[in-house]
Description:
Strand content: 15-25%
Amino acid sequence: MKIIAFKNHFFETLAGDYPAEEVGSFFNILTSKLLGLSRLDLALNPQRDLSSQELEKFEEALQRLRRHEPIQYITGSTEFFGLKFHVDKNTLIPRPETEELVQWILDDFKETQEISVLDIGTGSGCIAISLAKHLPKAKVSAIDISEEALKVAEKNAVLNRVKVNFIHADILAAEDLPDRFDVIVSNPPYVRELEKRDMQRNVLEYEPETALYVKDEDPLLFYRKISELASHHLKAGGKLYFEINQYLRKETEALLAEKNFQTRLKKDIFGVHRMLKGSKR
């Protein structure tokens, strides 16, 4: 089959599930991943024949997309803060709004500063690794409860040529932290069960539940625990950064204020309060 014919088949198959623009993006990502071809290559050679092996891989990816599996899991990679990251079913797919959390930290600290950083709930390692890449003199550590996620994060540290100290631990069961830090950052689970009805299928059915959801009756349990630990393990003048649930911004800010943090909320690219900083008094 020629690639132009398969492209038509690809668009027709997914037409009822995704907008045409998104289908086009999927096709370009897959042709780059599976064939090593750019959009220009495709435009210049639409009559290129697909081998039986290539066609089989494309068809498999197409069927996975029909089941609403995220394209990042199909290709096994994504980009975050200009860096490449491996991702799989054990890790959340990094979001663009989380890049803003990283940028906020970088805006507050100079590249030459020898600071210590802890990322709690690191997942793919996207926050910790991005900070290590842009703060080369920083000593960066990262914690996660999932051993499988840490394996992915370790691969990503090697891929991006940075050193991060990865620690397997359940932060909710921790009585203390391994050191004192200038920066503690976390994007913990914060989506309440009641908010699941607003989630897309690709998130609900594929991304790891333990990294996303909290019980409705205690949605701030991670923020409470982390801010408690941070109040004892941040150095003088240290800062705590959170990605937060926009619907619980006031409650989360009040929680940090109770722990004697000076707080500041920040909106993301979508205009919602998505980030919170606590400065140790």
